[in-house]
From TrEMBL:
The chain crosses the membrane at residues 139-158, 167-186, 192-212, 224-246, 252-271, 343-361, 373-393. This is Solute carrier family 22 member 7. Pfam families: Sugar_tr. Keywords: Cell membrane, Ion transport, Membrane, Transmembrane, Transmembrane helix, Transport. It comes from the Eukaryota. GO terms for molecular function: organic anion transmembrane transporter activity; prostaglandin transmembrane transporter activity.
Amino acid sequence: MKFEDLLLETGGFGRFQILILAMLCLPRINLPMHFLLHNFLAATPSHHCAIPHQEAFVNLTMEEVLLISIPRKPDGTFSSCEMFSQPQFHLLLNSSLQSENKSIIQPCQHGWVYDHSQFTSTISTQWDLVCDQRGLNQATATFFFIGVTMGAVVFGYLSDRFGRKTMLLLSLVCSVVLGMLSAASVSYTMLAITRTLTGVALSGLSLIVLPLGMEWVDVQHRTFTGILSSIFWSVGNMLLALAAYLVREWHWLLVAVTGPCLLSIVCLWWVPESARWLIAKGKVKQAHRHLLRCARTNGRKDFAEDMPLTTYAQRIVLQRVYKKMGGSYSYISLFRTPVLRKISLCSGMVWFGVAFSYYGMSMNLTGFGLSIYLSQFVFGVIEIPAKIVMYVLVNRIGRRQSQAWTLILTGLCIGANVVIPKPLTSLRSVVAVMGKGFSEAAFTTVFLYTSELYPTILRQNGMGYTSFVARLGGALAPLVFLLDEVWRSLPEVTYCAVAVCSGAAAFLLPETLNVCLPEGIEDIE
């Protein structure tokens, strides 16, 4: 007897499951508000070198002061990182003249002046993370995703050992504490450390929420559960754009995106532990109690009334399921048997490509002719129809084909924008939005697909491993932007190549459409 049979006896997919999914959607909304916060937290507004003794130029307009103090770039705009060592008054007579004497051009000596029309303050303006310090600015996102990477290993193991709900609650509490500490940072070092630790804590939410919901639903509603959870990620994307638009100061923006975790903590008290996990750990009595509660909530009174009379018989059934699922496993178990080894290697490649291309696109909100807030909102909006389409596709053509082609099309859209001229902003925006839609469709599918590939006894280990690989991709994605100093289009070419190659790797995975969730390794092999 499989666990799905027990779920059907308790009402299958009913009010109990709907309430669980509703509660678990709250932390899901909060995730992208932190994962994509770098777009606004570390945004770099227009800036130029601070000009000393500016009061001496009272008879000049600001444009003229800049003209004699700041050299121009080839495109005619003022340099952000260089200044003249002495005012070049002759440029007032002919602004088209540019001195060929490089010795009079020097790096900024007195700090920078920032345009505060869009952002009151960001970490870039707070600690001057521009020009030579630009790498530290991008590294903030990398530090966060390194934390998420470490958290994937930690929470993947702990949630299989101590339970899904316990670790989810710990993750939420730590996220609130560390998020508030990040907002109170008084130095870049403090911010880097607290954001890294926040990433560790939030990894628990990313890793546990979907499997916990999936383990309470039957085969027929697994796709719906995965898509619904993913849609609330997109809602979080749009709410991030709204929050960032309303809160332009980075300290308070961190408070605004961390606060909702408190509501999630309150709602989590109602969510039960995974009965699948309890059975796998031999905690049959607790699983029995949660299944009884599920049956009563779903209106299966006949089942609930029979339970006291058939407790012994039901316990025997649960014990049989436990014996089938029992054993001691670790991350090494993911690579011990041939089929499971192939699944782990290929799914790792897919997850890396999905995260690498997704965050590569999500953290590049400029250059499409839209404001940064509108770009964030549109990128969130386009994800919802993409997910609805995926709800149909994964049930029609299967998980494998959907996963492979969404990744490949993501790469092709990124590659297309490499060759489309910059002045064609409307066309570039359309292609970018299409690519973002395919990218999100790939992310939606990979969560659902992976949770179906691994057996219950290794599901959280499997999700922890794949999440670890994905966060490596997320950590590297922001740093790839620095390659534009080698070749302006090199970042986009890199994102394109990785997405296409990882999409090809998805063809090597087995199909899981309409297949019962595997309980033990023998079900996989």
